[in-house]
Amino acid sequence: MRPTRVRHIVLWLTVVAYLITYMDRVVISSAAPLIREEFGFDLITMGWILASFRWGYALFQIPGGWFGDRFGPRKALTAIVVVWSFFTAATALAWSAMSMAAFRFLFGLGEAGAFPTATRSLSRWMLPTERGFAQGVTHAGSRLGAALTPPIVVALMVAFGWRTPFFVFGSMGLAW
């Protein structure tokens, strides 16, 4: 069977998904000073909140990969993106350090399966001779997302407050 152009659509959808994952991760870093100011969090508390994403992400990498294997990349990525996008937006609804840490943990849990599942998808769709390029493009997309996010977040915060960027970036995942 000849390869089709669909593989390029899959690749670019994956690039955009990777871009959004890193954008969603970086929002809180730019918003942290205003969050700390509003809630009165000290640096240690903010550190725990930031670490809670990493804990969720680390603990659910293997279950997230299993989820992608079990249900297939299309269904699994759809569910994964919905979960992580919901908890990105939910961060703006936090009322305490504990609630914010819980939302960030659940955001990490949701995002944990994205890379293993997307890699599975790319291994199915990309020709073996294109897989290195595909990995390079997707990883460049994620880092581009991290680089583009801070000025966007700052502009949104200046205009609308620190909560708005979480809603905006959460919506991007749902649009994907």
Summarize the structure.
By secondary structure, the chain is mostly helical. It has 8 helices and no strands.
Can you walk me through this structure?
With 176 residues, this protein is mainly alpha-helical. It is 85% helix and 0% strand. It is built from eight helices and no strands. It has helices at residues 6-39, 43-59, 61-71, 73-90, 97-111, 114-125, 131-160, 163-175. α4 (73-90) packs antiparallel against α6 (114-125) and α4 packs antiparallel against α8 (163-175). It is globular. The chain starts with 5 loop residues before the first helix and ends with a helix. The relative contact order is 0.21. The model has no long low-confidence stretch (mean pLDDT 94).
Q: What layout of secondary structure does this protein have?
A:
Elements: H1 6-39, H2 43-59, H3 61-71, H4 73-90, H5 97-111, H6 114-125, H7 131-160, H8 163-175
Helix pairs in contact: 1-2, 1-6, 1-7, 1-8, 2-5, 3-4, 3-6, 4-5, 4-6, 4-8
Pick out its properties:
0% strand
Indicate the overall shape. globular
Uncertain segments are: none
Average pLDDT score = 94
Please describe the biggest sheet, giving its number of strands, its sense, and whether it closes into a barrel. none
Number of helices: 8
Number of strands: 0
Rg over C-alpha atoms, rounded to the nearest angstrom: 17 Å
Structural class: mainly alpha
Helix content: over 70%
What is the string of SSEs from the N terminus onward? Answer: HHHHHHHH
Query: What gap, in angstroms, lies between the N and C termini?
Result: 29 Å
Strand content is: under 5%
